Amino acid sequence: MDKKRLFVAIDLPDEVRSKLQDLQRALKPFARDAKWVNPAGIHLTIKFLGATDVDKIPALDESLNLIAKAHQPLAIHLMGCGFFPNLRRPNVLWAGVIAPDLAMLQQSIEHETARLGFEKENRPFTPHLTLARFKNNKGLLPPAKETEKYAGVELASFVANRFVLFDSILHRQGAEYHKLGIFHLAVP
């Protein structure tokens, strides 16, 4: 049976991508060993679904459509940077996300996808944008100090009026994303 590697996310406006690319350029000299995410591929993941039988996609599409109609557009603010899981053992450099109503959308998607047979996430939802990944923490102190400059600084803001069902195709040079469905949030 055919499968696709799916996830639900908010796609970013071009001007936000441009600001994140500027931030990456500013931090790159301090983290040369990092693998930087292509700005075109940065997105705000709401729910990773994983390998999914293609015959499940129509029901998923229908459910996501109903969820979108029940939620209003979201004000999203990108604030500061940090590291997952922590600064001592960093795997990911991220930009922070503040969006109070995003949790309600995420919970709706989590509940509905579980009803369709997708595994529930057992970690708390921590909205963020991945900017870079680290294989080791070699030479990390300079970028850690550099990211402190952005603590509490708003990097960008926008209103998300839709979310997307993406298909992720993995390649050696990185992932390639295809939009399978766009779901417009209800107009207030």
Protein model, in words:
With 188 residues, the chain is α+β, with helices and mostly antiparallel strands. The protein has one domain: Cyclic Phosphodiesterase, Chain: A (Alpha-Beta Complex). Helix content is 26%, strand content 39%. It is built from 4 helices and 9 strands, in the order βαββαββαβαβββ. The protein has helices at residues 14-27, 57-69, 102-115, 141-148, and strands at 3-11, 35-36, 43-53, 74-84, 92-98, 128-133, 154-160, 162-171, 174-184. The strands form 2 sheets. A 5-stranded antiparallel beta sheet has the order 2-6-5-4-7. A 4-stranded antiparallel beta sheet has the order 3-1-8-9. A hairpin with a 2-residue loop joins β8 (162-171) and β9. α2 packs antiparallel against α3 (102-115). The mean pLDDT is 90.
